[in-house]
Amino acid sequence: xxxxxxxxxxxxxxxxxxxxxxxxxxxxxxxxxxxxxxxxxxxxxxxxxxxxxxxxxxxxxxxxxxxxxxxxxxxxxxxxxxxxxxxxxxxxxxxxxxxxxxxxxxxxxxxxxxxxxxxxxxxxxxxxxxxxxxxxxxxxxxxxxxxxxxxxxxxxxxxxxxxxxxxxxxxxxxxxxxxxxxxxxxxxxxxxxxxxxxxxxxxxxxxxxxxxxxxxxxxxxxxxxxxxxxxxxxxxxxxxxxxxxxxxxxxxxxxxxxxxxxxxxxxxxxxxxxxxxxxxxxxxxxxxxxxxxxxxxxxxxxxxxxxxxxxxxxxxxxxxxxxxxxxxxxxxxxxxxxxxxxxxxxxxxxxxxxxxxxxxxxxxxxxxxxxxxxxxxxxxxxxxxxxxxxxxxxxxxxxxxxxxxxxxxxxxxxxxxxxxxxxxxxxxxxxxxxxxxxxxxxxxxxxxxxxxxxxxxxxxxxxxxxxxxxxxxxxxxxxxxxxxxxxxxxxxxxxxxxxxxxxxxxxxxxxxxxxxxxxxxxxxxxxxxxxxxxxxxxxxxxxxxxxxxxxxxxxxxxxxxxxxxxxxxxxxxxxxxxxxxxxxxxxxxxxxxxxxxxxxxxxxxxxxxxxxxxxxxxxxxxxxxxxxxxxxxxxxxxxxxxxxxxxxxxxxxxxxxxxxxxxxxxxxxxxxxxxxxxx
Length: 679
Hints:
Layout: E1 29-30, E2 33-34, E3 43-45, H1 60-66, E4 72-75, E5 78-81, E6 86-87, E7 94-96, E8 102-105, E9 113-117, E10 124-130, E11 132-135, E12 137-141, E13 145-151, E14 154-156, E15 163-168, E16 172-175, E17 178-179, E18 187-193, E19 199-201, E20 204-206, H2 210-213, H3 222-236, E21 249-255, E22 260-265, E23 268-270, E24 276-279, E25 286-289, E26 294-297, E27 300-305, E28 308-310, E29 320-323, E30 326-331, E31 334-336, E32 340-344, E33 352-359, E34 362-364, E35 368-372, E36 383-390, E37 393-395, E38 402-405, E39 415-418, E40 421-422, E41 429-431, E42 434-435, H4 438-442, E43 462-466, E44 476-484, E45 490-494, H5 504-518, E46 522-527, E47 540-541, E48 550-553, E49 559-567, E50 570-574, E51 584-592, E52 597-602, H6 612-626, E53 630-635, E54 651-652, E55 661-664, E56 670-678
Parallel strand pairs: 3-4, 4-7, 5-8, 6-9, 7-10, 8-11, 9-12, 10-13, 11-14, 12-15, 13-16, 14-17, 15-18, 16-19, 17-20, 18-21, 19-22, 20-23, 21-26, 22-27, 23-28, 26-29, 27-30, 28-31, 29-32, 30-33, 31-34, 32-35, 33-36, 34-37, 35-38, 36-39, 37-40, 38-41, 39-42
Antiparallel strand pairs: 1-2, 24-25, 43-48, 44-45, 44-49, 46-47, 46-48, 50-55, 51-52, 51-56, 53-54, 53-55
C-alpha cells in the first residue's frame, strides 16, 4: 500500500459523557490486549473463535458463523479482510483495539461490504460498534433497531457512493466517528432516517488536513483525536491509503425524513469547494454533484448545537438546508462560507415551516434565508410561524449585502429578527424579516429550550507566534509574557536545571511545558501522538526545536507576547534594620508578581544574635531555606561551598548589616517588607 506523506503530520482534538462502561468479558486478555469494557455485552476474543488478523484471507464468513448468541467479538489490533456483509443480531457488538489499530478491509475493488442489518422487520438492539477503521466497509442499520451505539470508528476509502454510515427509525448514539472521502471515493457521509431520540456528537465528516486540524481542536474529544492518530500511524505503516483532501462529500449529513427529538452537537462537517466530485471521463458530464453540507427535512424538535460547517461551494448546492418542518434550534454553530437555507416546497407532505430558531451563531461570509416555490394564495399556501433569528454575529467583506432575508412569495409568514450584528456592532441588513427587540425574540423560545440561550459558538484556535530565543548562559532563565485580547497579562518562566538545557532547542520545550500549565486560553507546542493530560492543552506537546513550538490562543483572540532571556538573580530588596532587643523578632514578607505570598519570622536564640549584622545573616539563611523562588545574601557570581547544591548556590549570607541583598530567582518581580515585631 502507498503512503501519502502529508498524512504523516495529521493529528487531532470537548467534552462528552456518553455512557458508563462495565466489564462483561469472558477473559481479560486477548492476544496480549485487555478486552475493552462495554455495557451489558459479553465480548469474546476473536482469536478464541479462530478469527485471526493479518492472514490475507476473507474472515467475514467466519465472523458471521462464529458470532456468539447475545454477545459480541473483540478484535485485537491487526488487519481483517471483510469481503462479505456481516449481519448483526441483538448484542452482536464489534469492538476493536484500544491500544492498537483494528482495520476491516474490503479489498475486492468493485464493491463495498457492510456491517449491520438491512432487514426492516429484524429486531436488533443493545449492541456497540467501537474502535474499528472500516476501509471500504460501511455501517448500515435499517428498521427495527434500537439502543445501538457507534463510537470512535473511521470510515474511509468507501467505493459505495451512497451513505457510509446509515441508521434509521429508533434511538442511536453516533459519537466520535470520522468519515472520510477522497477524490477516488466520493459520496454521502451520514444518514439518519426517521430516527427518534438520537444523539450525533463529536463526529468529523470530511477535512482533517493538518492546516485545519489545530484551529478546530476545541471541537475534538480525546477519542476522536486519538482515532486520527491511529489513521496517521496506519498510513505511515502502509496499512491504509489516506490522501490529503478528504472532503469529497456530496452531502455530509442527510436527514431526509422524520428526525424527531434528536440532537446534532459538536460535529465538524467540512468538505471542499468543488462543484463536481466525479465526472464522466468520456462526456465530461458531472456524475456526482454537491447536495448541501447537510440536508434535513420533515423533522420535529431537533437541536443543532456547537457544530462547524465549512468547505462547500458558494452556490445553491453549498448551504445547510432545512425543509418543510417544525422545531429546529440552530444555536452556537460556526458557519464558514455556508448559508442557513430554509426551504419549503409544495411537493412535501408537510406544507409548513414552523418554530425555526437561529441564534448565537457565528456566520462568516454566509446568510440566513428563506425561500418557497409557490406564491401564497387562497388556493395554495405554505404556513410559516415563529421563524426567529437573533443574537447572531456575522463577518463579511461586504457588510452592505443582505445577511438575513426571506421572499415576497410569503407575505403573511412570521419572520422575526433581532440584534444580528457584525463585530463592529453594525446591524446586518435584512429583508422580509420584521425587526423586534431581542428580549421579545428570546421570549419566543419554549421553556424547555431556555438553557440554549447561554450557548455560544466554539472558538477556533488562532496562531500568534512561536516560542524561541537565544541560548541561555549561566544564571539565566527564559520568560514569556502574553496578553490575550483585553485580559490580564500572564507569564511563564523556565529555569534550566543544568547547562545541558542552555541551547535554545532544549530550553524552549521546557518553557512550552510550563506555558501550557500556567497560561489560560492559550496552548503551545506541536500536536501530540498520545494524549496523557486532561487539560485545555492535552492535544499539544513540547518538542525539542528552536522554532516548532507554536503558540495559539484557544479563544480565537489576538495576543501580544514577548520572550525574554533574563538574569536569574533579580535584586528586589535588602536586609537591614536596627539591632534587636529582648522579646523582639524580625518579620520578613514577600509578595511575588503572580500574587504568591510568603513570610518568615526570625527570633534570635540568644542575645548574641541581636545585633543587625548577625541577625541579618541568620535571616538570610532562613529565607534561603524556607521561601521558594527567593535567595538572600551577598551575590558572589560563583557557586559557594556552603550553599552549593541548594537553590541559592550563588548567594552567601554574610555577617553584615547591609550586604545581604534579596533576589528573586523565579523570573518574577516582588515586593518585600521587613519589620521588627514584639513576641
